[in-house]
Amino acid sequence: MTDPKPQDRHARLVSFSGIDGAGKSTQIEMLRERLNQDGFRVSQLAFWDDVAMLTGLREYSGHTLFKGEKGVGSPTKPVNRRDKNVRSWYMTVVRFALYFLDAVSLCIVVAKQRRAGADVVIFDRYLQDQLANLNLRSGIGRVYARLLLAMTPQPDVAYLLDADPAQARERKPEYPVDFLQQSRAAYLALSKMGGRMTVIPPLPVEKAAQRILEEISKNLSLGDLQRFSISSQTIASAPKPS
Questions:
Q1: Cα separation of 226 and 147, whole Å?
Q2: Helix (H, G, I), strand (E, B), or coil: what is residue 134?
Q3: Range with the lowest mean pLDDT among 79-88, 156-165, 185-194?
Q4: How many CB atoms are closer than 10 A to CB 178?
């Protein structure tokens, strides 16, 4: 049987979500490497770079209006960011508007990616990572989150990498621990709110990768993906990002 033409392919969507420092980049790299080794064509997108709208204005607000530091935090160089952790009623209104634009953009991006010829499209963060910044203890926040989840395409497999907030901050010191605790609670709430997220508990890197591959093999039952096999040896030998 000949391969279908690129325009006839229906790419499978896989997303990774979680608090900063949960290990998303590491797991994405390991999964991508494994899929490439097995001959699958993989496309990778970052929600902030490839989907989110008005990112320049949003970064300006964090750096100039709220006096947040620039850059990505590391154990040797912590930063104090001021953006999604700024909580006020007017920022909630702004986020409602921005996240609606992000949802519309996501619909467009997903439609294009499904026709782009890849077998699997991996998203580094998804709409849930935006909605986690809302106050989901509020009825209005929950209703709005459900509305956007209903209007946007959901991934075939959506991973939520759970993590201890204190340990996550040690790996990526950008936000206070109390904010990470709030974010973790919001992510767990979203996983039960129709987001259909598979929660990966805090595990060593290789064990988390094994759990991720098990979920892929169960949920991505596309023709040639049925030959996808699990190999701990392959996982262990996959290059680890620095």
A1: 34
A2: coil
A3: 79-88
A4: 10
Tally of helices (H runs) and strands (E runs) in the chain: 10, 5
Which 3-state string (H, E, C) describes 177-206? HHHHHHHHHHHHHHHCCCCCEEEECCCCHH
User: Does the pLDDT of residue 26 top 90, yes or no?
Assistant: yes
Return d(Cα 73, Cα 83) in angstroms, integer: 14
Sequence-distant (6+) residues with CB within 8 A of 48 are: 55, 125
Q: Which of 162, 212, 156 is nearest to 191 (CA)?
A: 162
Q: What angle do CA 15, 205, 242 make, to 5 degrees?
A: 85
Main-chain phi, psi angles of 86, to 5 degrees: -85, 115
Determine the Cα angle at 109 with ends 108 and 113, to 5°. 120
Query: Contact, 190 vs 145, CB < 8 A?
Result: yes
What are the residues whose beta carbons fall under 8 Å from the beta carbon of 185, sequence distance 6 or more? Answer: none
The position carrying tokens 């690129």 is 6
**Collapsed DSSP state (helix, strand, coil) of residue 146:** helix
Q: What Cα–Cα distance (Å) separates residue 55 from each residue in 98, 99, 173?
A: 10, 12, 22
Whose structure tokens read 């010191």?
Answer: 173
Confidence grade of residue 75 (pLDDT, cut at 50, 70, 90): confident
Q: What is the pLDDT of residue 94?
A: 92
Show the tokens assigned to 207.
Answer: 């064990």
Percent of the chain with pLDDT over 90: 59
Q: For residue 31, what is the enclosing H or E element?
A: helix 24-37
Beta bridge partner(s), residue 13: 121
Are 120 and 40 spatial neighbours (Cβ–Cβ below 8 Å)? yes
